[in-house]
Amino acid sequence: MEAKKSQQADLEKKKGLYLEIGLVTILALVLVAFNLRSTDKSDSGLNTQMVSTEMEEEIIQTEEEQQQEPEPEPEQPEPEVTTELEVVDNDAEIENELGIVDASDAADRAQEDVAISQAVEEEDEAEEEIFVFVEEFPSYPGGDAALYEYLGKNIQYPDLARENSITGTVVIKFVVEKDGSVTRASILREIGGGCGKEALRVVNAMPKWKPGKQSGKPVRTEYTLPVQFELH
Description:
This protein is α+β, with helices and mostly antiparallel strands. Among the domains are: 17-48; 143-229, Fusion Protein Consisting Of Minor Coat Protein, Glycine Rich Linker, Tola, And A His Tag, Chain: A, Domain 2 (2-Layer Sandwich), CATH 3.30.1150.10. It has five helices and five strands. The protein has helices at 15-68, 103-128, 143-154, 159-163, 195-204, and strands at 168-176, 182-189, 212-214, 217-219, 221-229. The chain has a three-stranded antiparallel sheet, with helices on one face. A two-stranded antiparallel sheet has the order 3-4. A hairpin with a 2-residue loop joins strand 3 and strand 4 (217-219).
């Protein structure tokens, strides 16, 4: 007896359906794969564009910083120091350009300066010394009588003193120098009316005196002279 196939087991009829399902499945897989590849390319292109933009921004920023920063000045070469040596003979005198002085020489010079200064001071003091009391007082040529005769002839009674009846004694102090000349005359006592000024004028016009002496040597001597003013 011949066995019969069931209609469910008969696949011959569904062969075309299975073929279509397979084709659709393959087409779907191809489309999916194509879409995935396109997406990868677009993402890659986007990333590349972003990286390029960032690099361009960094380059621009770097150029701006370089433009803002001042360029360092070129270093100038230091001048070369040269030393010139001058050869001189052994007998040649070498000038002391540095001004170095030997300590012993400086001390000797200082002592010499002090000695000279002291000598000058002592000489000045000796010259300036004025004696008040001496062994031999100065005198007018011809003595006291000649002195008062000189005063009487040369003194002119001041008009102001005459009009106001001013009388009295004016005292004049002066120095008789070693050579007998009269110096440093001044009014020691005044009575007014111009009498002191007139007496001072006459004393300054006196001839040389005989100088005073101390230990037999002429010395500068102070002298005080009274000058009498009287109305006749």
